[in-house]
């Protein structure tokens, strides 16, 4: 028994006429008659009584009709669920992110836009270090990631730049550099630096290492989080290189200054799996790549 048999049966039962039913089903009348006979052979008895003018349901046909309707409705319901999932209208998206995605406002803008467009999709947000995000994506613990470029990505991961900002210097308000009108990379090479602890990385320091043609400045302090870095800077331990988006964070005794070398930029990447098939995740990546706010 196939769904088309049930569809033919229900249409014939509702019209009571082979010709009308065949027209509605877009098939020829002999083909409809053959399919109804095949269904009757399948169930083991007649489902219709046939006269010269119309057909009527037998007792067995009357029993089958509500069951056939329910089966067809359930099949249509199942098809709709799958189609909505493939279109990205339902499902789950697990979003991993590093701190800059929040500080810049980019993550929240994308979340708000996605929830407005696909309110039935479940969203989960997971904060991780940049190094951990690529691994979590490869291991399918998350579905997409917002992160600066940190190390080499696996061949299974796709990276798209969705934003960039000039690098700034965070320094204490009483730092000798705070009064400088223009801060150069040479000046920065002479003062202590604060960077994220191991596992967090500091791409900015890696970018300027070549420009200094020397080892990283000493002493080199480490902090466990963005707020930890800013707290150490404001306390006078040294300076930190941070994207311009971090200037939204106001900390007592902390100021931000631009760097004279405007080529020093911080990027925000959207990472996703190349073999992704989930409709909701694909919908997220399309929105994030087109949802330019910066």
From TrEMBL:
Q: Which UniProt keywords apply?
A: DNA-binding, Transcription, Transcription regulation
* Residues covered by the HTH lysR-type domain: 1-58
Note one Pfam family from the annotation. HTH_1
Family per similarity comment? Belongs to the LysR transcriptional regulatory family.
User: What is the name of this protein?
Assistant: LysR family transcriptional regulator
């Amino acid at each position: 028994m196939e769904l088309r048999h049930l569809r033919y049966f229900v249409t014939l039962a509702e019209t009571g006429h082979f010709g009308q039913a065949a027209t509605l089903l877009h098939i020829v009348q002999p083909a409809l008659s053959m399919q109804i006979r095949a269904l009757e052979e399948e169930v083991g008895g007649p489902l219709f009584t046939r006269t010269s003018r119309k057909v009527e349901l037998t007792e067995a046909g009357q029993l089958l009709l509500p069951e056939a309707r329910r089966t067809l409705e359930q099949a249509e319901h199942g098809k709709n669920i799958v189609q909505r999932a493939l279109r990205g209208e339902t499902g789950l998206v697990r979003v991993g992110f590093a701190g800059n995605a929040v500080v810049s406002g980019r993550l929240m803008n994308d979340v708000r836009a996605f929830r407005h467009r696909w309110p039935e999709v479940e969203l989960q947000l997971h904060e991780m270090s940049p190094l951990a995000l690529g691994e979590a994506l490869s291991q399918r613990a998350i579905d997409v990631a917002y992160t600066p470029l940190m190390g080499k990505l696996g061949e299974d991961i796709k990276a798209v730049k969705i934003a960039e900002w000039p690098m700034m210097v965070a320094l204490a308000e009483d730092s000798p550099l705070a009064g400088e009108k223009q801060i150069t990379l040479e000046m920065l090479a002479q003062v202590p630096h604060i960077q994220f602890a191991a596992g967090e990385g500091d791409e900015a320091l890696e970018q300027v290492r070549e420009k200094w043609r020397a080892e990283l400045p000493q002493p080199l302090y480490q902090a466990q989080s963005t707020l930890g870095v800013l707290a150490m800077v404001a306390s006078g331990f040294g300076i930190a290189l941070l994207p311009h988006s971090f200037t939204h964070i106001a900390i007592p005794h902390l100021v931000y200054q631009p760097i004279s070398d405007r080529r020093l930029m911080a990027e925000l990447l959207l990472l996703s799996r190349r073999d992704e098939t989930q409709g909701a995740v694909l919908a997220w990546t399309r929105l994030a790549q087109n949802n330019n706010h910066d």
